[in-house]
């Protein structure tokens, strides 16, 4: 603990569904915004999740296609699929199937998923089918981080007929924080940080907060241990240089070495000396 700066306490003051509120206090003056903004940025950008990143639709080769008997066009269906939140329990990717005939209001519950994939919002609407309508599609999902637009995946090769879509991996829907002054002894300028976190249901708010804090700690530890690692690296380089210098000093100059000191047999040594080879 830094001398003169006491550590605060954290309390979960409210939790309802996928939302929770936390209070962290008392924080040293100015630390409320520092801690709150850091956690908010990491929560939005650096937590892993799973999302649909591509799909193949029968009788549709691009996202501007329309399907007979389906009320929504393919763009609207893709927007609905982006809202499907899921968890991949094993592996990094999976393939899901959606094959259904109308009349029906199609939801995420109609997606056929393997045992390793869990859909957490099965009531999410996908499309409305008339009596003649049908949907037959293959959904490709994987694990990732943050938000990955289609443009970033342009260099990735997809099979013909595969439609790439923006992937929303972040499990965080909303993060807000507020800072209020709080009294500590006679000081009235300490900070109270109030943090509100809403997730998509694939992770609990408390777990999201602890994971974000762990990511920040890992990065700050790199800075904390910088001097120690720099000294160790410098010492290693010096030891290597000393070793090479010693090897160079001990290296024999064979061109100036006498024949008698070269370690040849007596017969070879005499033959060389008789031929006036002395070094």
Automatic annotation (TrEMBL):
Organism: uncultured Berkelbacteria bacterium Rifle_16ft_4_minimus_38443
Gene Ontology terms: biological process: DNA-templated transcription
Source taxon at top rank: Bacteria
EC number: 2.7.7.6
Keywords annotated in UniProt: DNA-directed RNA polymerase, Nucleotidyltransferase, Transcription, Transferase
Record's protein name: DNA-directed RNA polymerase subunit alpha
Species lineage: Bacteria, Candidatus Berkelbacteria, environmental samples
A single Gene Ontology CC term: DNA-directed RNA polymerase complex
InterPro entries tied to this protein: DNA-dir_RNA_pol_insert, DNA-dir_RNA_pol_RpoA/D/Rpb3, DNA-dir_RpoA, RBP11-like, RNApol_insert_sf
